[in-house]
Write a structure and sequence with these properties.
Elements lengths: L1 E7 L5 E6 L2 H9 L13 E3 L9 H31 E5 L2 H10 L8 E4 L3 H9 L16
Parallel strand pairs: 4-5
Antiparallel strand pairs: 1-2, 1-3
Length: 143
């Protein structure tokens, strides 16, 4: 089997099509059996295509990238577990609670806090001199 990228000279649409062999493509072209999937025109020609060769080096690079992603995922999970154990979750109220701690010395948490805040809220906190950072969070339901 061989796959060619075909171009319609009438409507300029490009599309892929599979053939049993290059000889089979030539036979179908000669008999005028090839037509555009968009407009039906018989004025279709194959374009130049680069063959996709399986390269062991490329495959090793992909395996290496996948391993790096797994390592990053594992490290993020470790950070998340550390944060969950050592900080108090305040949910959507993060900006409010951060301001309460910053401006009201009476309000104390035994631990630091973490939660969610919008980009606007984070920008406002930074403008007020309240230190807040973003940590990428991986949903436990995802792999």
């Amino acid at each position: 089997m061989i796959k060619y990228k075909l171009n319609c000279n009438k409507c300029r649409v490009s599309f892929d099509s599979w053939f049993a062999s290059s000889t089979e493509y030539e036979k179908l072209k000669k008999k005028n059996f090839l037509n555009c999937i968009n407009c039906g025109s018989k004025n279709v020609q194959k374009s130049l295509m680069a063959p996709k060769v399986i390269n062991k080096k490329i495959k090793n690079i992909e395996v290496h990238k996948n391993q790096k992603l797994k390592d990053i995922h594992k490290k993020l999970k470790e950070y998340q577990n550390f944060i969950k154990k050592n900080f108090e979750y305040v949910g959507e109220n993060f900006a409010y609670e951060a301001r309460s701690i910053h401006y009201d010395n009476k309000k104390k948490y035994k631990k630091g806090i973490y939660g969610t805040a919008s980009d606007v809220e984070l920008k406002e906190l930074k403008e007020e001199g309240i230190d807040a950072d973003v940590v990428p969070w991986i949903d436990n339901n995802k792999n």
